Amino acid sequence: MKYPETLNNLIDCFKHLPGIGEKTAERLALSLLDADDSMINLFSTSLANVKQKVKRCSKCHSYSEKELCEICENEDRNKNIICVVETPKDVVSLEKIGSYKGLYHVLDGLISPMTGKNPEDLNINSLLDRVKKENIKEIIFVLTPNIEGETTSLYITKKINNDNIIISKIAHGVPLGANMDYVDSLTLEMALENRTRISNS
Ligand SMILES: [Zn+2]
């Protein structure tokens, strides 16, 4: 016997998600059949809303439901320092640590000639704009420590070309080639504290 069509459709939906195989998709779909109505309502509303409501902050490109994200809007944050990261997920990871009180800028990737990602494909111009218009005194790169990460931080450092701005990157504790997804929060916190200055002249 096969599952009814509606159930099969749900299983197929789960299979489209990253890291979900046939068996897991089946288990998740069946678990929803047993879930109570309030859970199903929350699940379906969240699903319907996520793409529609979650936008990017117009300033730092992090996730936000408003024009500006809660970090850019927060008057208590240090507005003189920007932490440059690859994805909105990195912002959430760093916020979980809780020790960083400055602003962020999400590049949406790294410069990579191998995959055809050029500087103009990233949020670099908007970062340079912020450096010019806002009172920025320090930039910290928290990028994946591989050749693409290095290329990206050096490119931006050259473009900023301002000796009055301290430019640093996290260095210690993060293994070469480590994806930021897999670096635990303690390692990241230590790396942030022990950041090294990049020469900017
Ligand atoms: Zn923002």
Describe the fold and architecture.
The model has no long low-confidence stretch (mean pLDDT 89). The protein is of the alpha/beta class and 201 residues long. It contains eight helices and seven strands. Helix 5 (88-97) links the parallel strand 3 and strand 4 (103-106). Bound molecules: zinc ion. Zinc ion (ZN) binds next to helix 4.
Helix count, per DSSP?
A: 8
Can you give the helix content as a percent range? Answer: 40-55%
Spatial arrangement of strands, main beta sheet: 4-3-5-6-7
**What is the oligomeric state here?**
single chain
Q: How big is the Rg? A: 21 Å
Identify low-pLDDT runs.
Answer: none
Q: What percentage of amino acids are in beta strands?
A: 5-15%
The chain-level mean pLDDT equals 89
Largest sheet: 5 strands, mixed
Heteromolecules bound: zinc ion
Named CATH topology of the largest domain: Dna Topoisomerase Vi A Subunit, Chain: A, domain 2
Q: Could you state the order of secondary-structure elements as H and E?
A: HHHEEHEHEHEHEHE
State the secondary-structure class.
alpha/beta
Shape: elongated
Q: How many structural domains can be distinguished in the coordinates? A: 2
What is the strand tally? 7
CATH architecture of the largest domain: 3-Layer(aba) Sandwich
Q: What is the CATH class name of the largest domain?
A: Alpha Beta
Distance between the termini: 71 Å
